[in-house]
Amino acid sequence: MLEGLTLPPDNWIPPEDWIPPEGLEEALREKGWTGSFYSEQEKALVEKVQPQSTEKFEENWAKTLQNEVNKNSPLTHESWDSFLESLSTEEFNEFEKLLTEVSSESGLRQKEAEKQIETLLREDFSPDRFTHAMETLNRYGPTDGIRKLAEEDSEIATYLRSTLPEFKQTDSQNQEKSIQ
Hints:
single chain, mainly alpha
């Protein structure tokens, strides 16, 4: 990444509001740079937020979980804030990596479902009806999209409900809500 690049002076101060590209500071450090992109105030703030030890982090997280289990409710914003503040930079990066992996897996499942929908609709409906159905589902999401399609093109909505499990579940959830 940095081949042939001259390192900035160690006392270089970046322009105000400049955000370094992710990984640049670490890459420069690997090349021997000892400077920082952050002011002394920013460094002090980061040090203040970072926990003193992993033991403290584990203790805080255990307390947070125990408190929430006792309440028999999901974590509150305050609990999450407390947990995130107790993470070191390395721990936070690992946590963020885990969340990214989980969200990318659900994104892949969604893309697979979209391909399945496209294949089924293209086979049985005209290009105009197919395009309209896909735009509606993308714009409104599965729950509201299927409801909107039922109003505009009941044949496609009925077809989707009978063919794909995602829409069967959405439809039964809607019926339960309307009964309550």
